[in-house]
Structure formats: C-alpha cells, structure tokens
C-alpha cells in the first residue's frame, strides 16, 4: 500500500532540516593536493597545503588538454579541468582513466575522488589514510565535520572504504557559488559534461573493473558520505553523481538481461544438438557464460540498492528543492527504463508524495516523470493503485499557481484519459473542459487538446445528435457537438477563447466555413435543422474563426502582444484570407437576407467584410454580389433601431469606402442616397410634429419614429462626416429646448446629444487639418461653449442614463479641447477650454453620487434565474461605474482637472479596492510621474480630511479613540500610501520631505502632551533641518514671503473662510449637496489653478503652490517639544507587490 504523504513529509522535512552551508571557492590554484597520511596539527596542515604537489601528473599525462587563457596556453592535468573544458570526447577521457586505474588503482581512484570533490566547488586538499591502520574505536571518531577557527579551514572526515578521507577547504563566505549552480553557458555545459562523464564511466567499466569489488565500493562510499554532509555543495553534487551512476547501472542491468536471454537461448540450442567433443566444449563455454550472466546482475542489484538506500532515501526530502527535483527526475527515468524493478507501489509512492511539494520545480518533475509512464500502455496496468490514490491531486494541480505545472498536469490527465479506462469520471472531464476559457494560453491549448481528443474526435459522443447528410457529414457532426458544449457552458461571451484553445488541434474543422454556412442556410423545417440558439452560437463561431484566421494572433487577454508570424504562417494566413473572400462574398448576402430581422445574428455577420480582400470585387467581376450586400445592409438599417446593429452597418460602409478601392464610388453613392433618405425622413417628422413654443406635438408612434431616425443618423455620424447635411442646428435646438423646458422624452435626447457631439468633433477635425478663418473659429467656439453648458446642465438630470451619457461626453470633450493639436496657434488659443472651478466641483459631486454609492441590501429567497439576473445586473452596474471613474481620472492625470480633486478619490481606495483599486492605483502612479510634490500634497490632504472627519465624529469628547475602526482605517490607508513611494529613498526623498514640512512637523507634533523624555532629539534635529532647508528653496521662500507679508487679521480671516467653506461662490442647492470635506478640497484648489499647464510630451516641474496642506496657517512652529512615535513593522509582506506603484519614475 502507498502511505499518506501529509504527515510523513512534514515529519521528514523536520528530520532532514540540516544546516545549509555553501562551499566557496578558494584562491588555491590548480585543484587539490592528495597525500597519504595524517594531518595532526594546523601547522602541519598549512605546511602540507603549501608544499604538496599533484602526484597524479604522470598518470594523467595522456589526458592533457589545453585552453587559451589571457593569451597563454593552460594545460589541463586533472579530471576536473578536462571535463570542465570539454575539449575532448568523454569516452577517450574515461578510457585514459581506466588505463591509469589498471596500472595503479589507488592513485587513479584518488584522482577520481578528487574529481568529485572539485566538482563540489572545493579547491582545498584531500588526504587519505588507510582504514586498516586504525583501531576500530578511532573510526567513529574520525567521522566528523569540524571547523578550525585558527586556520580558517573546514574539515570533513568520512569513510570511503578502504580509506578514511579528509577533505579540507578554506571558508570564504564572499563567494557562495559552486559549479552546479553557477550561471552562464560555460557552467551549464559543465553540468552536462559532468553527467555524461558519470554515465560513460559506468559504460566503459561494465566489461572489466566494474565488478572488482573495489572501484564501486569506494565510489559509492564516497558519494554516500558526501550526500550526508551539512554542506549544500557536497550534498547537491554527490546526489547528482550518485543518481546518475544508478541510472547508468540500470542501463548495464538491462544489457545484462539481454545477454542473459541470448546466452540462455544459445545454450538451449547447443544442448539440443548432437553430442560430440566439439559440441561439449561449446556447451561448457556457454554454461560458464550463463553462470556469469546470472552472477553479474546480482552484483549490479546490490550496487543499485546501496545507492538508492544511501542517497535517494536520504535526499528526496532534502531542504534544497534542486536536490529533491534531481531525485524525482531520476526515479522517473528508472521506472521508464526498468519497470520490472522500479515500477511498483514501493517506488511510486515517492513520486506521489512529492506531488504535494511546496516548490513548483519538484511538482513539475513529478508530472513529467508520470507522463513518461502513462504514455506507454504496457505500463499503465501497473498504475491502478497509484491512479486511484493520486488522481484527485493531479486534477487539482490544473489550478496550480505555477502555470507550467498546471499545463503539464493537464497533459498528464489527457494521457490518463487515453490509456486508462475509466480513470477520469464525467465530473472530472467537465471540470477540465472549462479550462479552454482560461486566460493563460498554454493551459487553454492543453485543455483544448483534451477537449478535442476526448469529446470532438470521439465518434461515440455524438450518437444522440441528429446527423447531416452529404459531403459535410463528418464536420457537421463535430460542429454540432462543439455548439452543444458551448451552449451548455453558459459562457456565451467567451467564444473567442474557446476557438483559440481549439485552433491548434481542430483548425481544419474551424476553417470549414462551407459546412458552417450550409448548416445556417438549411431550411428550418428539415430534419436536423439548427435551433435559434444553435444558429446564434454558430454565427459567433464563424465570426471568431474568420478573425483568428485573418489576423493570426490570439484574442485580447491571451498573450501580451501580437506574435510575429513565420513565413509559413504568413502563407497560411494569405490562403485563409483568399478562402474567406471567395466564400463569403457570395454567401454573406444570403445569410443577411435570412437573418435580417434578428439583431443578434446580424451584429455578428456584418463585421465579416472587414477581413475580405476587397479588391476581389473588381478583379473578380463580382459587383453584383456587392450590390446585393449593399441592398441587404440598407434593408437592415431601415428595419432596426438598435444601436449595435446601426453602428455595425455604419462601420461596414466605412470599410467599403476606405482607401483607393475601385468600388469606392459605387459604395459612396449608395451611402449618400441612404443618408439623404434618413435626413429627409427626420426633417419631415420634425416639421410635422415640432412647434417652437410648445415643443413636440405628436403621439407615441411619432416619437418612436423620430427616435429611430435620430439613432440611425447618430450611428452614421460616428464614422462619417455629415457636415454637408447641417444636422448640428437641428439637434442643438432639441437639446436647448430640453435644457430650458425639460419636456422631451429621454430616448430622443440621447441620440440628439450624440449627434451634436459627433458634429462638433468633425468640425474640430476639419480645423486641425486645414486653416480656417477667425469667424469660423469663433463660431465653433460658441458652439463648443454652448454644448459644454448643455452637458453641465444634464449632469443633474433626473434620468440616470442621460446624466451619465452627458458626463462621459463632457469628459471626453474637455480632454480633447485641452490638448488641441493644430497647425494654427490662433485656433489652439481660441478653441482651448479648461473647466472652471464650478464645473470641476459639479463633476466631482457627480462622481461621488454615481460611483462611490452604497450597495443595496441583497434580497433573500431568490430563485436561480433571479439570482443569475441579479448577478448580471451587478456586473453591468460595476462596469458602468468603472467607466465613469476611469474617464474622470483621465482628466486628473492629463491636468485638465486639479490634482487635489484626486484626494476625494483616494479616500475610497481601501473601501472599494476590489472594484476600483486598479484605477485609483494607476491614477496615483500617473500623477506622481507628472508632479511628485503635488501628488504627495494630495495624499496628505486626503489623510487630513479623513482625520478631521474622525475628530468631528467624536464631538465634544476630549479623548482620542485610537482603537476605533475609523482611525484604524485611516492608519491603514496611510500605510498603503507610504508603500506607493517604493523602496528607492533617493527618488522619494523630495516628496517625503515635503510631507514632513507641510504636514506633520508643522502641525501635528507641537502639542506638549505627546512629548516624553530626551530620546526624540534626533527628530527635533531633523525637523529643524527641514525648516532650514525650506528657507534655502527659492520657490518655497517666495510663497512663505507672500504669506508672511499678510497681516494677522487677513490670515485669520482666510482661516475662517477655509474652515467655513465660503471661499467659493456656490448656489444654495450646490451648498446643500457638498460635504465639508469636499468644500475644503475645492477651496484649496483655486490657488493652484493659476499655474496649471497642459500635459506635454516632456512635462516640466510645476511651480510650488500655496501651502494649502496647512489650513491652520503657514507660520512655522519651532517648538522643541518631542513626541512619541509608533514603530511600524519593516516587513510589509505581500502588500508591497500590490501597492508599490510608480517606483521606476525618476
């Protein structure tokens, strides 16, 4: 049975929690020194270290290699140097060592021992003393690992039968690398050479010295002793060497099994032949060889057991993940190479336990090893117990936080499903299918392969679905299965992710547009026809597959950027575009004619022509299909009033009219005729139902027709310049009438507002492209001011949709007007428009009322359908509020609105972090990049206002509630703000010093009640240095001088205005809606507005503003009192990753 991993692993980690040291390299040159004898004193050790010579030079002379270093040829005389340089074939290097071993095995063996020691990064010396020369009681005493403080040397004594080895190396903590973990291609190649050397060593010795009971006993004793060391380098290197030796021994064992089988067959054949003198000699020879083949596997098995028990069992739970990964990787290879011995539950349990390892590298090695086993059907029969025990764990690993582990887990499950019957339940498969919608593309592609091979490519899964007849039968059945899966998943907005996941495996099916369109054009009364939901899903799939084939890159959200296509991929892309053009030029008009009344289907069909090769209309003489397409689009425009459909039609006209296409005149004529009809229809409706004094005089049917006409014109106005039809005056008149009287229906005002906005934008485009007269510019300026006034008025409209639409349009227009780019400076000066303080206050109030609103209480006892509807409403509402906040924060970032207005936004950072945290954090980062000082002042202002609100909530109570929830929230918000300054103190010094000057040091540390003892003198000195530096700064000095020249009475009056909220003139209605904190923000913003500048490509630092962060007055307070401060923890945990923004800004 396989034991449970949880408790065993935890206990074993504690048992194996050995001290992790790293062997450093010393400055000793040319490797180690080898001597036979004892080093009894440190002085003797130093003498040996200074005088020792490499006695292996003669035995290694045939192994010399050279390398050019600094213009000189350096000879390699040790195994380590030859292997690390990699200049010679490994087989010849091993052959030279084998010859040296046959001549003098002790010297050659010590050479090999020194090789493993040097590969561990130890460049001290190795001495050896014979085991037989010591009393038995001294052996245990020699097995120690000590440090000599006098000489600064580290000693390790261990037994490598028949010797006791002493490894000595200097301890240099400045260099902690050793060859296996050193970076760079040289050391990566060294690791490969090291592994190859151990494998070739066993391979070349398998016919001779491998069975002499001397070589392998010594090497195994050496590596087992090093693997038990407290030093990481010894453990890592010896574990890798020992396990690679075991892998090589497994290969030898496999060869022996083959030889044994062949010898047995020859023996049986020879035994059945006619007996004779010659035959008997041959039979005796085969008998001896057979016995030898039976004896050698036993010796190899003993070696393998010694390495497994002495190294693997001790190190597979090592504290170093690299060592654990090596163990798991090698045991996986043993199971694949020699399943008769290793593929059983006694060994499989180690891989199963390590599936729970905390390090992704180890978990990944487990999955890769299991993939090699489950990919072979002949091995799967031995995995029944393992599969039942660890299948759930493997399924859960598809959600691993490491993406590569999740991908390999998905691939392993696919192999299990293919080769293990009933290994995965239907619930498991349903769970795995949903990964095709994940944003990580490699995992989604792996899930797509699982879905394709398990569901789409399985002929038995489509038995319950109706069959199609004809040439499209195979693809039609698979498409029906795919549509059914998509509809059952209920993720209808993610069809692009589904198609992209299957693209690498089912490209031929997804590009079979002829089959798809044949299913759509099939008569609905025929047997096997698609339902309405299936038709909608198939049309979505068609659009996504056409886009994927034409663009050649994944959908938005999968992949950081567009991938660079290879020559082969570009060729396939061109072929697909040609195929799309040839097919849909003919079929698309038929599809539009069939589904012209269905808005959802039409919206997904109309974008297809943008992926055409539009020149094919003229080159292929297909003008009749173009006329049919334009006719169907015109009919759709007349039938529908839905904005999505109308905008899709408008975009298609824009695409067909773009460039220097041969069909431009034909399409432009059709477009002009359509717009003429729409404008004439609107004019006639307004003429019949509009009265200048009474307004709109018509019934519901007439209002509906007017609204539909306005929607169609607004959709066209978005992509086409309709200036020659002069629609601005008509729509503007409607807006003014609604502003003054407020009696028009909202469904009419919304498209009229859009039409007016688009008309103004097209006029701005015309002004930017060509010079205009001053009269034209002045007229445009009046129209822009009037439109901004209309939008401002609509902000307080009772209809929520209209007010939010007006806010979005107003923000976009203000951003455009504040960043005009024209060839004429006069045009820029006349058209530039920045919002007044009154408008800024109204916009900020709008954000507070429409974005940061309290959520309504949830209703209980709702049905599943009601819950789903409610969740959809919440998501749409959240998307709407995020859009409003984002467009307003854009104004702050671009210096259109005062930066201090962001203080009201930052107050909600903690409370609304899940909904708006990313937007607020990005705003903070961008504003800091524009002006670090002003951004810091805004943060302090935000905290001051929250603190003042907290004090006001306490009322007349004199005690400060530091443990209250509101105060703790302020403290946490301040901590989050502090994290945004990043770790670079040099970059953030100016901002932090400003906070201390204008915030804490001048206002909040002067009360004597908080002062204790003399331990705060450094704080006083720091405060005085800040105040002294303040005098040296010219900008700050000018501000202070300006304020100091004011009389005390004026300063007091200004303070009263700030505290009373009377600095700005506001209407009574506005005053009732404003909170005291909000009034304070707007009042303090007015001085800064004078120096506001538009954001340019290279922003210059803005001048210092009035010290508005100190509402109690700008006077310095030079009190020598001291305060008590809190000790904040230095370790901020994961918050650093979440909240540090703008750390790279200079």
TrEMBL record:
The keyword Transport does not apply. InterPro entries: ARM-type_fold (IPR016024), Cohesin_Scc3/SA (IPR039662), HEAT_SCC3-SA (IPR056396), SCD (IPR020839), STAG (IPR013721). GO terms for molecular function: chromatin binding. Keywords: Cell cycle, Cell division, Chromosome, Chromosome partition, Nucleus. Residues 24-39, 57-67 have a biased composition (Polar residues). The keyword Nucleus applies. Belongs to the SCC3 family. Part of the cohesin complex which is composed of a heterodimer between a SMC1 protein (SMC1A or SMC1B) and SMC3, which are attached via their hinge domain, and RAD21 which link them at their heads, and one STAG protein. PANTHER family: COHESIN SUBUNIT SA, STROMAL ANTIGEN. This is Cohesin subunit SA. It comes from Alligator sinensis (Chinese alligator). The gene is LOC102382279.
